[in-house]
Amino acid sequence: EPTVRTELMEQIPPIAIFLQESRPKFPAAFFEYLMPIVVRYLTDVNNQVRKAGQEALLILLEQDLVAQSDIENKVCPILLDLSAPDSDDEYKVEAVNIICKMASMLSRTTVEHMLLPRFCELCSDGKLFQVRKICAANFGDICNAVGQEATERLLIPKFFDLCSDSVWGMRKACAECFMAVSYTTSPEVRRSKLSPLFISLISDTCRWVRQAAFQSLGPFISTFANPSSAGLYIREDGTLSIRPSAQDVNSNSCQPSNSITVMSSTANAA
């Protein structure tokens, strides 16, 4: 029964945490029994079971309960199969979503060598605009996961393509994550490549794209500032914030922190 498998998936994370805390008694139980179930349910025929499996996997990764070898040898190959060009549409959309969400939880080497090539392919998926939209919405997170060199060499060309996509929702998603992409690049790339690209979005024929671009204008400009003097920084949750100066901290030592969030740098895929 699918409901039984779904319920089982919901119990996997707490069981895994218990096994982790009791590792001397159960040294290999998670890797031998639970992890294979999670991987298998990522390809279950039932949509709800797959969704529960995906949520369980992300929780396990977030809690750092999955070994690097299992990620590379078991999880990534399944996601690459599900996101292949000839894969079923529904499976492909789900796989892309997982790849984007788990990128920030994996090592840079794993993301760059195992997932980044497929992500670049999916950015150009001509069959499903939903796939391209997920890529566009999470583009900043992928850039942050792989760093400046891979971003400028492999991702920026794909970002240009998405910013000129025929579907306005794609261009809007790019405008919303523009600051996060810019933050990962060098000052020269920001000036010579991203600035003209941003002008094209702020002059877009679609008012929804223009509106999103105008909302990202301030955060994008902030990426040109020197963080040490401007006090701007990116929080772990992907938001642009202002760090109070030492003088402000001393004068308000009894007051709550006045660090404020300016704008979210990423957008969830619709």
From TrEMBL:
Keywords: Repeat. GO terms for molecular function: protein phosphatase regulator activity. InterPro entries: ARM-like, ARM-type_fold, HEAT, HEAT_type_2, PP2A_Regulatory_Subunit_A. Coiled coil: none annotated. It comes from the Eukaryota. The keyword Repeat applies. HEAT repeats lie at residues 115-154. Pfam families: HEAT (PF02985). GO terms for cellular component: cytoplasm. The keyword Repeat applies. This is PP4R1 phosphatase. It comes from Sitta europaea. The gene is Ppp4r1_2.
